[in-house]
Write a structure and sequence with these properties.
The chain has about 220 residues and is of the alpha+beta class. It has one domain: 4-Layer Sandwich (Deoxyribonuclease I, Chain A), CATH 3.60.10. Helices cover about 25% and strands about 30% of the residues. The protein is built from four helices and eleven strands, in the order αβαβββββαβαββββ. Strands 4-5-6-7-9-8 form a six-stranded mixed sheet, with no helix packed on it. Strands 1-3-2 form a three-stranded antiparallel sheet, covered by helices on one side.
Length: about 220
């Protein structure tokens, strides 16, 4: 993200985005992340991030416009993926939304996938105690279009059991035809989904409109 700050800020401004979720930021320290994300954001945006200097960790971030009230919810001791968890509120919403922006490393053996699903379920179980409206975004590195593979079947069953919908249904990576960058939603209305190559990454940008379902 270091060398893309102006492009990201321009993308957010020109598309009038209220939230921008990014993965693989490659930001390794809190100070660096704060400075870079400020440069990558329009005025008055707030940023929430997870950074780590550990090998294999790539960083995730959520940038939020002043239209929304955002609060960081710290999550510790997750080993199989990185995430930033944010509570989002809007004056026109009756419900708060818990957003989880995550990155899972590209390891596709069944044991690794199952370990990921176990940890992901633990995180969701904690979330369900307080939040009914949840949106999850990120690079899962799971080729959900290959639904004949066992690990994909188990992932899709995981989504069904947890009552998550999923978008998009088209490739999101410039070097393959697979769907690996996902938007998952539970009690959240998602519409206007489009995938676009903005040339700021080898992954495409997924655009969508969303708001919490206004009922219990």
């Amino acid at each position: 993200m270091n060398n893309k700050t102006s492009n990201i800020s321009k993308l957010i401004t020109e598309n009038k985005l209220d939230v921008f979720f990014s993965t693989e930021t490659w930001l390794k320290s809190e100070t660096t992340a704060d400075n870079v994300l400020e440069e990558a954001s329009p005025p008055n945006f707030r940023s929430f991030h997870h950074v780590s200097s550990e090998d294999g960790r790539r960083g995730v971030a959520t940038q939020v416009s002043p239209v929304l009230h955002g609060r960081d919810k710290r999550v510790n001791n997750i080993k199989t993926f990185e995430c930033v968890v944010t509570i989002l509120e809007h004056k026109e919403w009756e419900k708060r939304v818990l957003s989880i922006n995550l990155y899972r490393p590209p390891v596709k053996n069944l044991i690794t996938i199952r370990n990921f699903l176990d940890e992901f379920q633990e995180l969701l179980n904690m979330a369900y105690k307080k939040y009914n409206n949840i949106i999850v975004t990120g690079d899962f590195n799971i080729w959900v279009d290959c639904d004949n593979k066992t690990y994909v079947k188990e992932f899709l069953e995981f989504l069904r059991v947890n009552s998550f919908g999923m978008h998009p249904n088209e490739p999101t990576f410039s070097r393959s035809t697979h769907f690996l960058d996902l938007v998952l939603f539970r009690n959240v209305e998602v519409s206007g989904v489009k995938v676009r190559e903005d040339q700021i990454s080898d992954h495409y940008t997924v655009y969508f409109k969303w708001r919490p379902v206004q009922r219990d």
